[in-house]
Design brief:
With 158 residues, the protein is of the alpha+beta class. 38% of the residues lie in helices and 39% in strands. A six-stranded mixed sheet has the order 2-1-6-5-4-3, covered by helices on one side.
Length: 158
């Protein structure tokens, strides 16, 4: 009698863990959509919702390295993105990896189309890693690191 009960308990535990992971994956996928939408619309309130307000958050990108939400807001969103009249970030080919109940990371590829103030188009592509922590039941971005696409040109990519 104990063996079937133990098997049932183990199956229920594994099932709930898989459900929790599926839920976390769906929540983080939605967070990625929000991240792109906040960038595309330059919605600072939306961006603030998805970024942790912890002083240790950071954002590394080709134009700089910010620490803390205020630096990210001022230098990335308002500075870099705010100087572009149009922006369109598209995220694709992403994978989400849950490490613990409250930590996860994702990696993905992106394309970015924008225009400079004089109308000159910008088109770029790259890859990104994001690290998340669940705070008060909500997944938040803690770290972003992005870079351009790999290069095979001699003397580049080192």
């Amino acid at each position: 009698m104990l063996r079937p009960l133990a098997t049932f308990a183990l199956a229920a535990l594994l099932g709930s863990a898989a459900f929790a992971q599926d839920t976390a994956t769906a929540e983080i996928a939605a967070l990625l959509e929000t991240y792109a939408r906040a960038t595309n619309t330059l919605d600072l309130d939306l961006a603030e919702e998805i970024w942790s307000q912890d002083s240790g958050v950071s954002f590394i990108h080709p134009r700089g390295h910010q620490r803390g939400w205020e630096e990210i807001r001022e230098n990335f969103y308002l500075g870099a993105m705010g100087g572009l009249p149009t922006r369109h970030l598209t995220i694709g080919d992403f994978e989400i990896h849950q490490l613990t109940d409250d930590t996860a990371w994702s990696d993905f590829y992106w394309t970015f189309e924008a225009s400079l103030p004089d109308g000159t188009p910008i088109n770029s592509a790259g890859r990104e890693t994001q690290i998340y922590r669940r705070e008060n039941g909500v997944w938040q971005i803690h770290h972003v690191h992005y870079s351009g696409m790999p290069t095979q040109e001699e003397g580049e990519g080192f």
